[in-house]
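re: ur question from earlier - yeah i can do the single chain one, its not a big deal. heres the input i used so u can compare w yours
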Amino acid sequence: MQDNKNLTKIKIQDQNIIQNRELSIWEALIPVVLLMCMLAYNIFFAAGELLGEYSNQFILLVGGLIAAIVGAFNKVSVRIMFNEVLENMKSVFVPIMILFLVGALAGTWLVSGVIPAMVYYGLQVLNPSIFLPASVIIAAIISIATGSSWTTSATVGIALVGIGTALGIPQGMIAGAVISGAYFGDKMSPLSDTTNLAPAMAGTDLFTHIRYMAFTTVPTIIITLIVFSIISLNIDITGNADISGLLNSIKNTFQITPYLFLVPLVVIALILFKTKPLIALGIGVLLAAIFAFIFQPDILSNLSSSKGKSIIKAVFVDTEIVTDNEKLNELFSAGGMKGMLWTIYLISCAMVFGGIMDAIGALAKITKALLKMATSIFGLFFSAAMSCIGLNVIASDQYLAIVIPGKMFKKAFEDKELAPENLSRTLEDSGTVTSVLIPWNTCGAYQSGVLGVGVAEYAVFAIFNWLSPIMTLIFAAFQIKIKQLVKK
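and the output i got, formated as tokens:
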């Protein structure tokens, strides 16, 4: 993922891991266990509404308070905890700005006709029988080119969800396919910051890391494509018979023209030329607003008393465009910046919890405990993988899930005479890709917010993401492509 690269990459690579000798492993686990219990109760027994719409956000803050109490009993000052939370909040400033811009992008791309045009042409090109594997491949190509799973979801991801929904394919399946492809590309692209960060932590170079990572990543994406192909061949496409009606409804509501594709193409081109994401997305919003005045004057007039107000409304608040087809009415709605607030609150609260857990030394303590379990080569790989996944859950940030295990396990891999690319591959297979499976992780919250599909809906279909750590452990268990250190 490339989006918050400028703020976090260098800082987080040099980050000190806070250790606290006063803290025991059982004390370190208290906030984690209680947080998991509260979240599980809210999700499975209270349908996510234990304390209203923002239940998960409040629970994360309660978890942070519990961690702070544990820290206070172990001689950690409030100042240290506050500073770590502040550092965490700084690290997600750019992602939060990106989320606001993605909300504005969704609104302006709707009223300008960009998203309807994508759906219109996509319905004609993408055959329902190959839709899911095709979505994986399309997302993978864009993500390799941009180095960013976030950019992929905010552009082609939104369009693919719209097209698939119109065909009657469950949104969880579509989002799972998009995320699988996006994270494959994110892992294998030399432009991705996590792909640069993992080898830096392990002590190897970028292209050695990418070549070595291909051994586990390529079989995983092949299995993913096979599974989605089987699902596509057996799924009941309820919207297939109504495609002509959908096409007519779109064309009767919007002025559809291939020129509208200039907007997403410009955004993708800017990302490819390494333009900062905030600038690229901001230009995408501005271009869409201009195209709305040119191509969709009737839409703007119907939404508000003035066309300017309609654009402002699309950027900041809810926008709904009514067509003569009920399926499209839900699809052609966007929340603007306002629609991203739930996700932004979730990320902010997760950063509070993760920051306090780091400040009291709990993250380092839990990782060290996992490291002690590594008595064999497989045990070492297993401990590193579980550490990455655990930190995605606890720290709510994929960068910490790479940095902390990378620093803690580097010497252990050397002691077992294992080449550093073994560790860098494990960090990516277990840290980068599983972040999107955690609802309160920055990646899970982002993807859910942008695609409009809950993590619980797409998690089982994000096959590439949950299969990647399993694949890396299979390779470790059977000693497949486990490279030894070359003795000088």
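DSSP finds 25 helices and two strands in the chain. not sure if urs matches, ping me
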